[in-house]
Amino acid sequence: MQKNTNIRLEQLLHGGDYNPEQWLDSPEILEKDLEFFLKANINVITVGMFSWSVLEPEDGKYQIDWLIEIVNKMYQNGIYTILGTPSGARPQWLAKSYPEVLRVNANRERQLFGARHNHCYTSLAYRKKVRDINMLLAKELGNHPGIILLHLSNEYGGDCHCPLCQAKFREWLKERYKTIEELNRRWNTTFWSHIYQDFEQVESPSPKGEMLLHALNLDWRRFVTAQTVDFAEWEKQAIRDGGCEKPITTNFMGDYDGLNYRKFKEVLDIASWDSYPEWHRKPEIQTARETAMQHDFMRSLLKKPFLLMESSPSSTNWQDVSKLRKPGILRAASLQAIAHGSDSALYFQMRQSKGASEKLHGAVIDHYGGEDTRVYQEVCQVGKALAELTELRGTKQNSKIALLYDTENRWALMDAQGPRNCGMPYKETADKMYAALRRQGVNVDVIDMEDVLKDYQIILIPMLYMFRAGIEKKIRAFVENGGTVIMTFWSGVVDDADSCFLGETPSKLTDVLGLRRTEIDGLYDEEENTAIPKKNNSLSLNKKYTCRNLCELVKVSDAEVLMTYEKDFYKGLPVLTCNQYGKGRIYYVCADMEEAFYTDLIEAVFEKEKIEKPFSFIPEGVEVTTRQSKEDSYLIVQNFNREAVALDFPKSNYEVIYGTQSEKLDSFSTVVLKKVK
Ligand code: GLA
Ligand code: ZN
To answer: What does the entry list as the binding residues for substrate (predicted)?
Structure first.
């Protein structure tokens, strides 16, 4: 059968998680749901993720007619189904009959039955039961015309320290290092007398045991990812063996760092994620930017449209405060996903549960059960907007700019002791760089060290503490061939086993950078320094900026110095440098700078490198992205300010296909323009 890696539907998807199994004894509710769905232009539901105990009430005794009936009924009404596999939450009987499926925590305590997402990914007993039910679902429903996508499990995550997982971990290490001597060498186990004689002695990290052997921590995290990917592969294989060849996804959790999502690339046909920003905690534009970076990360995984799999139509019930979204935010947030390359805006949940943990979580249809609710009306508005934007479906987002934000680097960087144990600003630096790029209105890919760099024009590289996957060679070649890089402090410190490089650092890049690091100063929370511009610097930077947290001291060999420290014993040493290498340029930012610095730096670099921007001026709080098909090009403009703002729309060449183009862009409104041919 030919492999179909895309959803064969012409619409942007609108709908979300639906739990009809909770309402099987109330057919009138299910009937009413359908009416609600149709009125709100819902065209897809996601079912099955938490249905296992209804689908298989006893070991080997299946009951799936109810699900087939729902899929049929929806399909007859033009609503498609994303079919979830139920491995995210197991029935009681399964835990009782096969206790090994229960997860063991880092303290080596086996969990009792309960909650969800807490099974062992290694247990063959678990795998077998998952395989059986996945195969059955694939056989009974996989080729139903109403099923458009298979959804593996739910938010894979966490780790298991049971004996089965320990054994697998040792196998994985053996595969990686071949001999115990090599493992000792790479992990530097002579430190604190930790030399292993045999792989059998290696244990996963534990608060009761070893937590400070960085290479062990790093490899454990890698193993947990590998084992989870292997489990996902296993689930997928069962679906294929059940005769279903439809595309496959699993829902990721945005900035969750328990797994390296990149490693799922081979398993997935479509990337998807669950977005739950804490709206109204910070200024909306900041929340919007942080969410946008997650969208871009998801799109960059497979470099094609992704799906927003879940979002709350109202508040959540698990954040500190269940904040309502102010009017207009639901539509703005849904369209923001589309603006960043999603082909869907889906919710958790379609109907609010009556009892248990999520009974107070927002839903399209709440306990009141009528359509005259603010939330339902706003959902209808989103449905209408998505229908008007149908032609965006499947269009791509080309980007010449990338931000390198690497999960394994994050693990290692955050695990190290020093140079600041009260906060290493990795995410924060990435966020600042990302915001600065987005202020220019350009699309940004969020990539990692394993990605190909050569197709980009500019790459921003915050705090790349660990060098792996030949990144130093790739950066060298990229700059040599004419690319521009902006790299920051605390880069090129350790290798892929988290051992420090000997010799000059950033390792193997000092000639490209035209400098080497000599020291790094950790600043107390209340301390700061200032970066001052050098006269006639090549970017014409002329403002002062604050530096906090970390100030690196470098010794320049070739680079031009653009800014220097204003005080402390390193007064006069460089804060910003630029080196020409081959046909390209590489900038090095020595300190943790305030956001305004990155905004001005990137604006100046864009000007110098003549990067094309969709607008010459974008007011703060306005977000601009583009999506393209072979024939057409679209500009999506959103205002995340609480007030309307004036914006100079292009006077010609564009027609408005969504929203209203006037002198001012309303608060939380969206306008979509299409290039006229
Ligand atoms: C996650 C889960 C859902 C639900 C929502 C609630 O994203 O995947 O099952 O629990 O959170 O916000
Ligand atoms: Zn286990």
So the answer is: 116, 154, 318
Instruction: Spot the catalytic one: 155, 408, 552, 560.
Output: 155
Name the catalytic one among 140, 235, 284, 310: 310
The model's pTM is 0.98
Going by CA atoms, what residue is nearest to atom 4 of ligand 1?
348
pLDDT tens digits for range 238-254: 999 999 999 999 999 99
- Ligand-binding annotation for 500, yes or no, is no
**Distances in whole angstroms, Cα of residue 656 to Cα of each of 255, 612, 650, 651:** 34, 22, 11, 11
Calculate the CA 574 to chain-centre distance.
Answer: 34
The residue whose CA is least distant from atom 10 of ligand 1 is: 358
CA of 674 to the centre of ligand 1 (A): 35
Q: Which atom of ligand 1 is least distant from the CA of 310?
A: 7
Contact 637, 595 (CB under 8 A): no
Whole-number Å distance between alpha carbons of 528 and 658: 46
Q: How many CB atoms lie within 10 A of CB 520?
A: 18
Burial status of residue 566 (CB atoms within 10 A of its CB: 0-12, 13-18, 19 or more): middle
Cβ(274) to ligand 1 under 6 A?
yes
Domain positions in the chain are 13-159+228-392, 401-609, 622-675
Q: Directed axis angle between helix 27-39 and helix 65-76, to 10°?
A: 30
Which residue from 82, 310, 315 has its CB within 8 A of the most atoms of ligand 1, so it is best to mutate? Answer: 310
**451 Cβ inside 6 Å of ligand 1:** no
Statement: residue 651 has pLDDT above 80: no
Does 120 carry a binding-site annotation? yes
Instruction: Give the model confidence (pLDDT) of 367-415 as tens digits.
Output: 999 999 999 999 999 999 999 999 999 999 999 999 999 999 999 999 9
Distance 156 CA to ligand 2 centre (A): 14
Domain 622-675 has CATH 2.40.50: no
Q: For domain 13-159+228-392, which architecture applies? A: Alpha-Beta Barrel (3.20)
End-to-end CA distance of the chain: 39
**Annotated catalytic residue 519:** no
CB 495 within 8 A of CB 501: yes
Question: pLDDT exceeding 90 applies to what percent of the chain?
Answer: 96
pLDDT at 3: 61
Question: Where does 340-466 have alpha helices with state H?
Answer: 374-388, 407-415, 426-439
Ligand-binding annotation for 192, yes or no, is no
Contact 515, 588 (CB under 8 A): yes
Q: Does 155 participate in catalysis according to the annotation?
A: yes
